[in-house]
Amino acid sequence: MDTNGAGPPHQGAGRTKDSGLGGIRMWSISAADTDRLAMLCSRQKELWGPVAFQSCLKAQLEMIKSPARKPDLSALSVAERESIESACLERRRLRGQAGYNRCEAEQVARLATEPARPDLSTLKDADRHSIESACANTKNKQGPAAYDRCLERFMKALAQAN
């Protein structure tokens, strides 16, 4: 569903239909894409409920529907936005603004499928700094979703070591 009317759906995603609902445009996607989206976002629904599930679906659909348009990053933290920008710099250099926008949309979609952001506040300052340092390259090269998974891995390793 497109609530702002911008851009046609991604080729193969179906045809846009004017639903007559005051600026809301409906479009369809394949059954395979529907199943993939439900699978990617199901963990969000289990952990955080239907609102998180719908946010995840929105991010995934936005990537399918309008891959060259700059995604809305306003709901992300400053650190997440900076991580996405850093991870996508090479794509901008190689593929221009459209490639950069696609990379940002992919990063937002990946981040939306993550079940939760790790909470480092319970760690000692030295442990938190060590974990953040160990994952810094991942944050800058692979984006915030990969960074969160890296933090989780190190937090589990630290918990097992203690």
Discrete helix count: 5
Structural class per helix/strand content?
A: mainly alpha
Give the overall shape, derived from the CA principal axes: globular
Rg (CA only): 18 Å
Mean pLDDT: 78
Number of strands: 2
N- and C-termini, Cα separation: 48 Å
SSE order, one letter for each helix or strand: EEHHHHH
Note poorly predicted spans: 1-25
> What kind of sheet is the major sheet?
2 strands, antiparallel
**Fraction of residues in helices?**
55-70%
Strand order of the largest sheet: 1-2
- Strand proportion, as a percent range, falls in under 5%
Notes on the protein architecture:
- This protein has five helices and two strands.
- By secondary structure, the protein is mainly alpha-helical.
- It has a two-stranded antiparallel sheet with strand order 1-2.
What key phrases describe this protein's structure?
162 residues; disordered N terminus; two-stranded antiparallel sheet; mainly alpha; globular; 2 strands
Quick synopsis:
The protein is mainly alpha-helical.
How does the SSE layout of this entry go?
Layout: E1 16-18, E2 25-27, H1 31-48, H2 50-65, H3 78-113, H4 125-142, H5 144-161
Antiparallel strand pairs: 1-2
Helix pairs in contact: 1-2, 2-3, 3-4, 4-5
